[in-house]
Structures are given as C-alpha cells and as structure tokens.
Amino acid sequence: MMALAEMATLLAHEIRNPLGSMELFASLLASDEALNDQSKKWAEHLQAGVRTLSATVNNVLRFHTPGTAQLVATNLRDLLVNGLEFIRPLAQQAGVGLSFEETLGESQVMAEAGALQQLLLNLAHNAFRHTATGGVFSVRASVESHRDTRVAVVEFSDTGSGISPEDLPHIFDAGFSTARQSTGLGLAVCQRIMAQHRGTISATSKLGEGTTFRVELPIL
C-alpha cells in the first residue's frame, strides 16, 4: 500500500505541470470571442474535463503528501466568488444551476486559498455527481457568534439523490464511495483541509431531497 501511494504521488506530480498548462490554454480558448457557439461549447467541455482531472490529481497529492497549510488572512467572500467561477464550467456541463447568498461583509479567515478552492471543487463534484440535470447547487455563507468567538458558516447544498442513513457516517472515510467514477478521496481531503484550518465540516442528508455540507471557520 505504501509503494502504491508513493507511485500515485509521483504520477500526480508528473501530471500536474502539463495539466496546469492545458487548463490555462483551455480557459483562454473558452474565452475567445472569435469562436462560434458550437466551438465555445466544445471548449467549455474541454475546460470542465481538465478541471475534473486536476481535482483528482490534487486530491491524490493532498491526501498522500498533506504537509502543513500556509495560512494567511483571506477575504472569505472573495474566495468563494472566485471558487464558484472556477466550478461554473463543471456546473454547465452537468446541467446544474449555481446559487450564492452571503452576508459575510469583509470577514477574514486564516486560510490557504488553494486548499479552500479544492474543498469547494470536491464538494461541487460530489453534488454534480448525484444531482440530476435541472438541479441546483447552492452556497450560503454567514457569520455566527459562538460564545466569545465568531465563525464563518458556509453551507453547500444540492438537490440531488441524498445519502442513505447507513452510508452517512462513512462519507469522510478515505476510499469510501457509492459512485464508480469516484476515487473516494474527495471528502476525506475536505475533512483534512478543515482540520488544517482549525475548522469543521459536517453533513446532513435526506434520500431523494439532497445533501448539505456545513463548514465552519474561525473569523479573525
């Protein structure tokens, strides 16, 4: 198992650099105003596919070489706005709408932007995988007071198929997945990222109605 983990990490490192170049050029191509509608659609599918592969590679790297997150003061609202724009091609490919509501103001948290973007990407992938065309992925962010501290609360909700009660306790276990196309690392990485940020992540779900992941981060 250790040898396989080392091999996976080496392959992920080798793939990440050319994949980054592909992502850059796919983004430039998708924003080219000279393209006709059909070509733009193809470019958006290419962009979504590259970002999906990038998420898988980054999950492998974060899981097998976690290290220490480099936390800096970060405007959470700006981070969420940028993250939602990053996943928009994936939502369009899945036929799922995006919704964003926030009352964060200028709230700042100690964060590594890339890590929190990975968390959003993983939760979005999970939602899109289990949400039918026409569904919605919603992000709601607010500030709550807990005794003498304030926390930023971000809820990521989908209108998908939901998680069964017997599966819910295991969703953050590495390797656990009910979807064949999933590595089972996405939610485990999310939990690890939140631990590095001194935050928490939890989930509630109802079969046939959808799932909500609740993230809490201490505010500066």
Topology at a glance:
Layout: H1 2-30, H2 37-64, E1 72-75, H3 76-94, E2 97-102, E3 108-111, H4 113-130, E4 136-146, E5 149-158, H5 186-196, E6 200-206, E7 210-218
Parallel strand pairs: 2-4
Antiparallel strand pairs: 1-3, 4-5, 5-7, 6-7
Helix pairs in contact: 1-2, 2-3, 2-4, 2-5, 3-4, 4-5
Q: Could you characterize what this model shows?
A:
The protein has 2 domains: 1-65; 70-220, Heat Shock Protein 90 (2-Layer Sandwich). Helix 2 packs across helix 3 and helix 2 crosses helix 5 (186-196). A 5-stranded mixed sheet has the order 2-4-5-7-6, covered by helices on one side. The chain has a two-stranded antiparallel ribbon with strand order 1-3. It has 220 residues and is α+β, with helices and mostly antiparallel strands. It is globular and about 55 Å long. A hairpin with a 3-residue loop joins strand 6 (200-206) and strand 7. The model has no long low-confidence stretch (mean pLDDT 86). The chain contains 5 helices and 7 strands. It has helices at residues 2-30, 37-64, 76-94, 113-130, 186-196, and strands at residues 72-75, 97-102, 108-111, 136-146, 149-158, 200-206, 210-218. Helix content is 48%, strand content 23%.
